[in-house]
Specification:
The protein is an alpha/beta fold and about 230 residues long. It has two domains: about 160 residues, 3-Layer(aba) Sandwich (Rossmann fold), CATH 3.40.50; about 55 residues, no CATH class. About 40% of the residues lie in helices and about 20% in strands. It contains seven helices and ten strands. The strands form two sheets. Strands 6-7-8-3-9-10 form a six-stranded mixed beta sheet. Strands 2-1-4-5 form a four-stranded antiparallel beta sheet. Strand 9 and strand 10 form a beta hairpin. The longest helix has 22 residues. The chain is elongated and about 75 Å long. The relative contact order is 0.22.
């Protein structure tokens, strides 16, 4: 997996064998790149021209990238995640289960008809309901109560890897919230689950941690890999 940013020479290789860290010294450029990736993830244009390439073909950010701007407000139960979760649950329902659900839905529809017939008005309503809408009806969500910041990160890694929801996860300034030891634990967890992850960092750190590879864009807009 490769990410390319216009006007910079380095191809940002994203691998499941390590975590890619992109350090950007210039604050305006950092803000533009963060804003651009965030916009692309919601199918909007960004200020910077950024592309994501897999096996020689460009892939869409909004379908393949999960961008976490702020772990403080990270919500694994946001609509974008839940929609993908519900789609992943659908194949788990076998034919017998589907037939039972259909019978329950027919029974409910009969009750609705008996209620509506008491009112002298005409109504329109669906006679068929998608399984995803049943999951929404019962508000199926992931449990997140009383989780620490690092547990929240582990939880999103578990979710995305287990259900194969996204090809790439992007964290913004995540290092600001954790010690070096905690970051290495997070890296180990990411590599163990074979996720493609990139960190966007607005601060330069000389130390390189285990399981990370850095590319730096300095104040002179020179980009290079930190060995």
């Amino acid at each position: 997996m490769i990410m390319k940013i216009s006007n910079f020479e380095s191809e940002i290789i994203i691998s499941d064998e390590y975590v890619r860290v992109l350090e950007i010294e210039n604050k305006s450029l950092f803000a533009n790149i963060v804003q651009s990736i965030h916009s692309l993830c919601y199918n909007e244009e960004g200020k910077e021209y950024i592309v994501l390439i897999e096996e020689g073909k460009e892939i869409k950010f909004n379908k393949n990238v999960y961008f976490i701007m702020d772990i403080l407000s990270m919500d694994v139960n946001e609509r974008k995640i839940l929609n993908k979760l519900y789609s992943s649950l659908k194949p788990c329902i076998n034919l017998d289960m589907r037939n039972q659900i259909d019978q329950y839905l027919r029974d409910i529809l009969n009750f609705i008809n008996r209620i509506l017939i008491e009112i002298p008005l005409e109504f329109n309503y669906k006679t068929e309901i998608e399984l995803e809408n049943i999951f929404k009806l019962y508000e199926i969500k992931l449990c997140t109560q009383d989780q620490s910041f690092i547990e929240k990160v582990f939880n999103i890694i578990d979710l995305i890897s287990l259900l194969d929801l996204y090809k790439v996860v992007v964290f913004c300034n995540i290092k600001s919230f954790f010690t070096d030891n905690e970051m290495e634990e997070i890296y180990k967890y990411i590599v163990y689950h074979k996720l493609h992850v990139i960190l966007l960092e607005g601060n330069l750190v000389e130390k390189t941690l285990q399981f990370e590879k850095k590319i730096r864009i300095d104040a002179d807009f020179e980009d290079y890999e930190i060995k």
